[in-house]
Design brief:
The complex is a heterodimer of chains A (235) and B (104). Chain A has helices at 26-35, 51-58, 71-84, 104-112, 135-152, 168-173, 183-193, 209-214, 219-233, and strands spanning 13-19, 39-45, 61-65, 89-92, 118-122, 129-131, 164-167, 198-202, 204-206. Chain A is an alpha/beta fold and 235 residues long. Chain B starts with a helix and ends with a helix. Classes of the chains: A alpha/beta (235), B mainly alpha (104).
Chain lengths: 235, 104
Amino acid sequence: MLPAPTPPAPVVVWVLIPACNEAAALPDVISELKNAGYRTLVVDDGSRDETATVARTFADRVLSHPINLGQGAALQTGMAWLVKQQVPFVVHFDADGQHRVADIPAMLAPLLADEADITLGSRFMSGGAAIDISKGRKQLLRLARITNGLLTGLWLTDAHNGLRALNLKALSSIRLRHNGMAHASEILLEIRKHELRYREVPVHISYSGYSRLKGQSGWNALQILSDLIFGRIFP
Amino acid sequence: MQPFQLLLALFLFGTLVLFVRRLSGRIFLKLVVAAIILCGIVFTLFPQLTQLLADLMGIGRGADLVIYTCLTGLLTTTLLLYLRCMRLEKMITELARKIALKEE
């Protein structure tokens, strides 16, 4: 079983939500996070819909990219702001509702106990789950996991899972240069570079029709791979 | 002289004029571009010259020499443009981030 959820009340925990054209899903996601006692920062990544307006109504803070740059860039912008505020703990959370708020306390526990600087959510650890995941996606993730291991030297049980928790040390040392989706692998590289203590935590990811529609297609995997390889050749 | 030679030479000449007029103030780049295009015009009008050079270099045909040189040039240019694109992307990102952080 999971360790008993730590009430987030005494420590300030910010949840960083990169969002591009997520006006429909945002209100529920943010409300649920706020009800659980978290502060919310939405980085609107040049959305063409009402994301910015919706976010301003619900979230504690909203930063808006004037143009669409990619999820990696949105996370980096959010992290830059959070570092300036010297926020002690940050959770990366997807806007499309595929992550579970109830998983956050377990993600934070190793940070609060000072046993890790960063925790990474894993669907495939015992105790975790990938709900309604397609077979193809599962194979793709297996491949991504191996690619990540080869490229970064970090052998994890899951890959490209947006749910992460960082303490201030991890927050201020990690710097994302890849604007696109390669940031998930880049974070692993940064973990190694800065010798951060990391740990995987089982989480539940649900592949609803909506998140599947909004999520990445398998072809993006190729894009990510080429980003990573070119990024290593031409830093 | 074949009609195609005349067409190609005219086309290259047009490009030359366009480039030299556009690249205002960048003397060095102007000279390099002009030299390359002039070479192209000369070789178009006097193809035997490429054969002379090819023999000098130990390449079978003059046309092959032209192909090799062009391919190398194209690859280099592509790579340089790619690197420049990356630099620009970085700058745009920084700019957008600055705007986002300033507006909050």
